[in-house]
Write a structure and sequence with these properties.
globular; five-stranded mixed β-sheet; four-stranded antiparallel β-sheet; PD-(D/E)XK nuclease family protein; PDDEXK_4; 3 domains
């Protein structure tokens, strides 16, 4: 049912598979780390591909389905899962697997599933995996819709229960030296209860955080970012994830932003190849367009970074893009205000999020230029005492 919910197409066909009676299954087979090269599709390529390191599916499930009305009719069902945690999704690898499955199981039903962290999910399965035939699900869906209901089943085999519980325990651990987890469990329950009970307090914090400087705002900022920072970080993370609050408190790091100064003109100073250049813009879109054009004129590799999505702000841990190929943020929300930049090299259209403050825009541009090996100064932010030149 997760797969049906997450598919881009053929949802009815997949739902029909999900509704099958387990009594219709014959000769089930589950293989961990299935060697994709043993599917024997292209005999001429078989030998050359044996050493391909990207040739193993993490889970390969095969079963024969018996027609309830015509017992002699059987159809094969294949469910293959490619799992990612630290590694990024490889579109070429996904294409290779798809071609092999289309040839080998062209007369059978097969589902190719990518199990990935939510941060890797883009606006569609095609954008994430290169084809809508792939179906992406994230670890939170796996926990909420499969693992936890299994653990709640009183008839669950005691040996299976311990394995599933270990899997859930592993998913709730922070990974990749980050605070983020692949899935949250107790935190979600706790945060939901806190929000339901103290909704007026959460809304008050949000309101105060967006006011001008005041004693009340300074006090709330201290509580949120210092005294109980871990608690409020978790609350914000989960509520943002569930799209329950449109705009939570916006103090400085580790949160997204603070009350920002407005400037009549935005300025950045670039030093590259021994030359210094000043770029000015009356607004955020104009500054972005001028900067992106300069980057492409220098022949710097902008396209790859835009394809990955340039996260808003000075870091790379947020959920909102400043610029991306499609106007959809990591949390799958659409850009609030969309502007476009047409590449002078490829003619492609890049999507810009215009609903961002001037300071965040300059911080993001500074981060982007640094990644491209360019020195940059942001004198307006520096003079405001909030940023050190990169």
């Amino acid at each position: 049912m997760i797969v049906a919910e997450s598919a881009d197409e053929n949802i009815d066909d997949i739902t029909d598979i999900a509704m099958l009676n387990v009594n219709q299954f014959r000769s089930p087979e589950v293989i961990a780390e299935k060697d994709i090269n043993k599917l024997d599709i292209y005999e001429g390529e078989e030998e050359s591909e044996k050493n391909d390191e990207k040739g193993r599916l993490d889970v390969f499930f095969k079963v024969n389905i018996v027609d309830e009305k015509e017992k002699t009719n059987e159809q094969k069902l294949i469910l293959a899962v490619e799992q990612k945690v630290n590694a990024r999704v490889d579109v070429n690898q996904c294409d290779k697997y798809l071609r092999k499955f289309e040839e080998t199981f062209k007369d059978d039903k097969f589902l190719l599933v990518g199990l990935v962290p939510k941060s890797q999910m883009k606006e569609s399965n095609e954008a994430t995996f290169g084809s809508s035939r792939w179906i992406g699900i994230d670890y939170q869906q796996l926990v909420d819709i499969v693992l936890m209901p299994c653990l709640d089943n009183p008839d669950l085999n005691i040996y299976a229960k311990s394995i599933i519980q270990q899997n859930v325990d592993a998913l709730r651990m922070p990974y990749k030296n980050k605070r983020e987890k692949l899935a949250t469990i107790e935190e979600r329950i706790l945060v939901r209860s806190i929000y339901d009970r103290f909704e007026d307090v959460i809304k008050a914090i949000t309101k105060i955080s967006n006011e001008d400087d005041s004693n009340e705002r300074d006090y709330v900022k201290m509580v949120v970012t210092e005294t109980y920072s871990d608690v409020f970080r978790t609350i914000r993370w989960i509520l943002d994830e569930e799209n329950d609050v449109d705009e939570l408190w916006n103090f400085s790091s580790p949160f997204q932003r603070t009350i920002h100064k407005r400037w009549d003109e935005l300025t950045i100073i670039i030093t590259h190849g021994g030359n210094e250049m000043v770029i000015n813009g009356e607004n955020v879109p104009e500054l972005w367009n001028k900067t992106l054009r300069w980057i492409e004129e220098q022949g710097l590799p902008l396209r790859q970074l835009v394809d990955e999505g340039i996260i808003l702000g000075s870091g790379d841990r947020g959920k909102r893009y400043a610029i991306a190929m499609q106007p959809v943020h990591l949390n799958r929300r659409k850009f609030t205000t969309i502007r476009e930049y047409q590449s002078i090299l490829t003619g492609e259209i890049y999507s810009l999020e215009a609903k961002i403050n001037s300071e965040s825009a300059m911080l993001t541009i500074a981060k982007l230029l640094k990644k491209l090996g360019v020195e940059v100064e942001t004198p307006l932010i520096e003079s405001n005492g909030m940023f050190v030149n990169i």
